[in-house]
Amino acid sequence: xxxxxxxxxxxxxxxxxxxxxxxxxxxxxxxxxxxxxxxxxxxxxxxxxxxxxxxxxxxxxxxxxxxxxxxxxxxxxxxxxxxxxxxxxxxxxxxxxxxxxxxxxxxxxxxxxxxxxxxxxxxxxxxxxxxxxxxxxxxxxxxxxxxxxxxxxxxxxxxxxxxxxxxxxxxxxxxxxxxxxxxxxxxxxxxxxxxxxxxxxxxxxxxxxxxxxxxxxxxxxxxxxxxxxxxxxxxxxxxxxxxxxxxxxxxxxxxxxxxxxxxxxxxxxxxxxxxxxxxxxxxxxxxxxxxxxxxxxxxxxxxxxxxxxxxxxxxxxxxxxxxxxxxxxxxxxxxxxxxxxxxxxxxxxxxxxxxxxxxxxxxxxxxxxxxxxxxxxxxxxxxxxxxxxxxxxxxxxxxxxxxxxxxxxxxxxxxxxxxxxxxxxxxxxxxxxxxxxxxxxxxxxxxxxxxxxxxxxxxxxxxxxxxxxxxxxxxxxxxxxxxxxxxxxxxxxxxxxxxxxxxxxxxxxxxxxxxxxxxxxxxxxxxxxxxxxxxxxxxxxxxxxxxxxxxxxxxxxxxxxxxxxxxxxxxxxxxxxxxxxxxxxxxxxxxxxxx
Length: 595
Prior knowledge:
The protein is an alpha+beta fold.
């Protein structure tokens, strides 16, 4: 039995040493790395605090509190909570927690770190068997504005320039306020923040629609980024349960609530696990379940025009729209659900259990794209979801192919987990895919390759010769007829030659749950639903539609991290911990009270 202040607590859980509360529920403990008790500040600089009310609400700090960085503040503690770890999450039964999070991708883990740093207890539930969501299989790039890496490379950038690029592409449906706040905060609150956990931004690229290079890539891509964030979350005492799917969400009124803060209106969540159900009682809930780009039915419901493209889906395995349905069940609203971001470099994957799933191939800078006539039709350097996807879509009803030679084949990467190992390409798995996939053709000559993919042999040979000889044919020109740069071009010359069948791949959803600037879910009248927050792709990266109709590369993952942090800070605040996002992070001033 556990002893607490000299009195016996009965009914302790023999596995974890935790005791149930008066209702017989196990309570998730204080999330604090190392379990050490915070030392009080002494003397004149000791932070002044208002006393707790009879309901146990912690008052707001006085203006004289020292303005330390939020990550340097020691979290407040309460005697009835204690450390939890993944092993201490109950197999079945009930559990109480300050902040519950569903989804362990970029937004969910960022929210967890922020809530833990504020002093709240946190439990994260992930429906899949492995954490990381769509972020862990992504390239990991984030749009960052005004970074030290840009400065070292002599790149002159500014929030105003980035905002203009953003709105020019996203159009009138983009959330201008969220976009402005992101570009102003991105370098500090995404880039530098991630560096504190060991993330290293290795290079920076200029993608379509950007005036300057600002797409920063971390070492080992999304795998390296999420590995660092997951380690930081666990080091703080955060608990994460995988293979745990949220099945029901309800709001319940609890005694003692005050103005949406503290233990008042709360959330009840049923989590399905193998062998039973966990009933979670939380003061705050962060929904970070990702988009629905891995659910073909939902993709075609909102974009029926894509049915003719024989599209494949290829986001994270848990991106099925479950979080959207849960939020709608309590009165939350959606926006921009038809804004689905597709990439042109998808290919059907015979290893997938469901035939509608595809795999993304990338890192083939020398490839050319041909249509059913054996001719090029696009600048292949613009391979993103904007003009690249539209170009492939324009070749229907015929197929499009990416053509590479032997030297490019050994550099090819497949983004899905079966073809990666610790964030690096698994060359043996990729080789098996190229050998056995019916959507890949390889031949010792271009004539034989043309026969295998059903395009005119003479046309393919002429296309490759024209591409390889563009420098000589267009003397003095910087680019070919499609606008692709001639300098530094790799010729397609080393046999054997390979053709990869190209399909549109639904990868991201740019719309989702509507929220305010505190990431609070709002109803159809724009009123916040107390205790419920949404962040990341389930909320269109931030706010419901931060990008609008189209997106600059890096404005999916970057805003997901930022909105996760904002949601985590305000979720902890609603549970009685911390000062919320504005005070903690120092973004904005004066009337900037909502973010």
